[in-house]
């Protein structure tokens, strides 16, 4: 695999009882870039993400991360290598404080992830690092707030903080601005731009304003295959994309 590519798929295919959800996809993600994956509903974006993170196994094809074949690797090992996914639905603990959520994410570094009987004081050594991550996502003033009380956009920022706690080289963001008002979209867009420094981001995103604002490269999927790829100007001017995506699903 080229040194400039952090992730590459070769002929990646996933079939479900005769239905081909991802069909012979060859994709390269350049290191240090923000790469968006877009397409109409049912285009295969979520299936593709599930294949990358080993939540699904491909019918055919291979996945390479930093030159290593990870096609049949367990999800936890993929995450340990530095490819971390944040999910479409917020995956934080609602009745823990904001700080406690980040400490739980950092706990893996102590080797005590499953030692639930230990005193929470054993996690105090993580407080400084947890606060640093909260500062990175603009939540330092919310550290003692119960997560359930956070506004929706701030919860997504917390989820990004817990993702950063896993020390990712490649962050996979699944619909990071879904369901947000304009103010939250703007805040999270700038947050993604900020945390992309020294990292690579692959995101599925429906909001074309966010995509045009952030993305170095855009890949358009339709019916499980790559329809077009390039920067926003190139992709948005492609007649096939306008017909398949912009016209029917720009406001999904």
Please outline what is shown here.
This protein is α/β, with parallel strands linked by helices and 252 residues long.
Explain what you see.
This protein is an alpha/beta fold and 252 residues long. The chain has two domains: 1-82 and 168-252, P-loop containing nucleotide triphosphate hydrolases (Rossmann fold, 3-Layer(aba) Sandwich), CATH 3.40.50.300; 91-167, no CATH class. The chain is built from nine helices and ten strands. The chain has a six-stranded mixed β-sheet with strand order 6-7-8-3-9-10, with helices on both faces. Strands 2-1-4-5 form a four-stranded antiparallel β-sheet, covered by helices on one side. Helix 3 (98-106) packs across helix 4, helix 3 packs parallel to helix 5 (152-164) and helix 5 runs parallel beside helix 6 (182-195). The longest helix is centred in the C-terminal third of the chain and has 14 residues, at 182-195. The protein starts with a strand and ends with a helix. The relative contact order is 0.18. Mean pLDDT is 88; it is low at 248-252.
């Amino acid at each position: 695999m080229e040194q400039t590519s952090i992730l590459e798929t070769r002929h990646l295919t996933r079939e479900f009882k005769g239905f081909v959800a991802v069909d012979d996809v060859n994709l390269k993600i350049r290191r240090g870039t923000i790469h968006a994956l877009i397409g109409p509903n049912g285009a295969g974006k979520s299936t593709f993400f599930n294949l990358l993170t080993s939540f699904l196994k491909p019918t055919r094809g291979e996945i390479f991360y930093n030159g290593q074949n990870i096609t049949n690797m367990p999800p936890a090992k993929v995450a340990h290598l530095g490819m971390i996914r944040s999910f479409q639905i917020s995956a934080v603990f609602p009745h823990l404080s904001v700080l406690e959520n980040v400490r739980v994410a950092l706990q893996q570094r102590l080797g005590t992830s499953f030692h639930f009987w230990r005193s929470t004081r054993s996690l105090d050594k993580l407080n400084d690092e947890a606060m640093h991550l909260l500062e990175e996502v603009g939540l330092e003033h919310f550290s003692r707030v119960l997560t359930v009380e956070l506004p929706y956009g701030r919860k997504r920022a917390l989820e990004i903080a817990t993702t950063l706690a896993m020390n990712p080289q490649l962050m996979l963001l699944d619909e990071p601005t879904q369901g947000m008002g304009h103010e939250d979209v703007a805040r999270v867009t700038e947050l993604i731009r900020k945390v992309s420094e020294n990292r690579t981001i692959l995101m599925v995103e429906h909001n074309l304003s966010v995509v045009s604002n952030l993305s170095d490269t855009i890949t358009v999927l339709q019916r499980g295959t790559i329809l077009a790829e390039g920067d926003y100007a190139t992709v948005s001017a492609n007649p096939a994309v306008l017909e398949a995506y912009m016209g029917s699903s720009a406001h999904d």
